[in-house]
Structures are given as C-alpha cells and as structure tokens.
Write a structure and sequence with these properties.
Number of strands: 5
Structural class: alpha/beta
Helix content: 25-40%
Number of helices: 5
Length: about 130
C-alpha cells in the first residue's frame, strides 16, 4: 500500500510537529503548512489525499482557504477534516455549508485525541494499492 499524502494546515508550530510526528509514525506523508496561503500553494504540487485544517490561520484564514479550495474543480473531491480550537457551535459555517465545502468531520482540538484524529483520517481516505 502506498503512503497517503496528508496536508496539515496548522499555525501552531509545536502542535504541528506533534501531529506530523504522530502521523509519520502511522505511515503517512505529511505536508505541514502554517497558513492558508501556503497550503493553497502546496496543493497543486503535493496533491494531498486529505486535508486537516485549523480555521484560525493568518495570511488566508480557514474559511477563505475552504472557499478557495472548492473554487477549483480539480481539488473539489479532496476531503477536509476541520481540527480547530473554534468549537463547532461558534463557527461561521452552518451544517449545510460544512457539507457543501467537503468537510467530512469537524473536530474540536481540546476534546480530540491523536487516536481519534487518526481514526477519522483512516475512515475518510482512499489509498491506492501499489
């Protein structure tokens, strides 16, 4: 089985490295970006199979990132997991918008373990067999 490419959009450098280390040990290729614009720039080059997105970003916040991501037809099918410090009840996105933007799961960081994140990734990714 080939490794899946995971685009991790995480502004907290320490937390980003924790997630990256954990997921690399679970046999994923991790592309780590700390802001939305860098993540948009990386998509065309890195071709992620799934995106993990924090909504609180600089230089292109998570909402802007999602809307720009979905404006490109070739990127429309990439599933997105929101993993944010913003609770779902306080997000600017309603249930329909979340679904329309291809968000497959909304996780609240303070209550989400690394194992839960891994489970959500594995349930929403398709990896081509080599």
């Amino acid at each position: 089985m080939s490794k899946a490419n995971v685009l991790l959009v995480e502004p907290d450098h320490v937390l980003g490295e924790v997630y990256k280390s954990f997921l690399v040990n679970k046999n994923f290729n991790i592309i780590l970006c700390n802001d939305g614009q860098k993540a948009i720039d990386a998509i065309d080059i890195e071709k992620p199979d799934i995106i993990i997105l924090e909504l609180q970003l600089t230089a292109h916040n998570g909402y802007e990132f999602l809307y720009e991501l979905r404006s490109y037809t070739e990127w429309f099918s990439i599933p997105v997991i929101i993993n944010s410090l913003i609770p779902r009840s306080r997000t600017k996105l309603d249930e329909e918008s979340i679904k329309n933007l291809g968000v497959v799961e909304y996780l609240y960081k303070p209550t989400t373990s690394l194992e839960k994140l891994l489970n959500v990734i594995e349930n929403n990714i398709s990896i081509a067999k080599t």
